Amino acid sequence: MTISPFANDTQSMTIGGLTIENHEDRVVVYGDIDLTRDKAGLAQARRLKELVDGVVRYLEKATDLPDSVQLSPVIDEVDNPFA
Fold first, then answer.
1. Average pLDDT per run of 10 along the chain, which is 83 residues long?
2. Which residue, of 39, 44, 49, 50, is most buried by count of CB atoms within 10 Å of its CB?
3. Where are the chain's structural domains?
């Protein structure tokens, strides 16, 4: 599965131990990945490259990029049900 960068949705995907979350104003990548010197490592490297290439293509085509954006929190805080 791939994502459409900056689409108006909250898609997510994983590559190895990386989690990629798609938001309107950002693409969030967190976790870790071992790109091993084998076929599995090559497959993961290709998926990661496809993701980053898609983000770069989107940003290069955008004509209205601001210098920076004000990011809203990704995770809303919730009350602790055990407190």
1. 79 92 90 97 96 95 91 68 81
2. 44
3. 12-55
